[in-house]
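Before a colleague's protein record goes any further, I have to sign it off. What it holds is a sequence and that sequence's fold in C-alpha cell form. My question to you is simply how this chain folds and whether the C-alpha cells agree. Thanks in advance; the entry in question is below:
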Amino acid sequence: MIARFDVRRRDYLAPDGSAKRPLPAFTTDSKLLVALYRAMVLLRHFDRKAVALQRTGRLGTYAVSLGQEAVSVGIASAMQDEDVLVPSYRDNGALIWRGVKLEEILLFWGGDERGNDFSGPVHDFPFCVPVGSQAPHAAGVAYAFKLRKEPRVAVCMFGDGATSKGDVYEAMNFAGVHKLPIVFVATNNQWAISVPLRLQSGSETLAQKAIAAGFTGEQVDGNDVVALRAAAAEALAAARDGRGPRLIEAVTYRLGDHTTSDDASRYRSAEDVQVHWKQEPVARLRSYLVRQKMWSKRDEEQLAAECHERIEAAVERYLATEPRRPETMFDHLYADLPEAYAAQRRELSGENDG
C-alpha cells in the first residue's frame, strides 16, 4: 500500500427538514437562513415565468434550475464580493444572489448579449453554454490571483457532464500542480441532457476525480442548502489561505427538462422523478424554518406576492428593451475593425445607400 484516499459526504438537513446532526454556527442567523430560502423561492418562480415566456415565443431556449436551486444559492452565499464567479448556463441563482437583475438574465436568454453586461460584480464571468469550456478560464483567473498575491478565489460551476470533458480535467490538473485559489463545483443532477451518470463516468463519486489532480474532493447533499453553504465556506477559506483548490460534488436531481428544447419523459420515468420530488431543497428548508418558528404561512404568502411583483416588473422591462440594430454585431470584434467587416457594417447600417 503506497497511498490511500477517502471521499467524505456532508449533509445536515433531512428531507423532512429535521436536523440530522449539529448544524454549522451560521444557522443561528435567522436572517441569513430566511435570505437563502427567499432566494431559492425567487429562482423557482422566475424559472416558471421564463418557461411561460419561452412557450409564448417571447424568450429563447431556457435552462431551468428546478430541483437544484440550493446549489447555486448556497455556493454564491458563501462567496465574497471580490471573488470571481465563473458560471455555466444553469447558475442563475448564483448570479441573482450576486446582484444580476432578472431582466438581464431574460435579455441573455432572449438572444441579446447585453444580458451578459450585467449588474453583478464586473469581474464575474458571463454565462457559459459550451459544456466545461469555462474551467480553464477559471484556472487562469486563479493563477492571476496567486501571481498578484491577492486573497481572492475563483469559483467555477459546471454540471456532472462537464466532468467527462478534457477541459475540466486539464483545469483541475493545472490547479492542483500550482495550488491555485479555486473551488470547482460539480452539480451532479444525474443527467447530462439524456445521458445518465452511470453511462458517462465509471467513478463511484465525482468528488474523487479531484484526487488525481492532487487535492480534496467532497460530496455534499445538493438538496441541503445548509450543507452547501458550509462546504463552500470551508473550501473558499482554504483556497484563500493558500491551501490550494477544492472540488465540491453537489448531488441533487434535475426535476425538470434539460432545457425548454428537451422532453425528459422520453428517457426517464415519471416514477423516478416523483421519488426525487420528496427530497427537493425548497420544501426541505421551509420545513426546517417552520420547525424553528422562523417562517409562517403568512410569510409564505407575502413572499409569493413579492416574487410575482418583482418578476412581472422585470419582464416588463425586458419586453420594453429596444432590440439592438444588426450592425452592432461588429462593435466588439476588434479594437480597429478590418475593412472587410467595416464594409459589411456600413451596408447593414445603410451608410452605402444613395
Strands lie at 8-10, 84-86, 154-159, 182-188, 191-192, 195-196, 216-221, 246-251. The chain has twelve helices and eight strands. The mean pLDDT is 96.
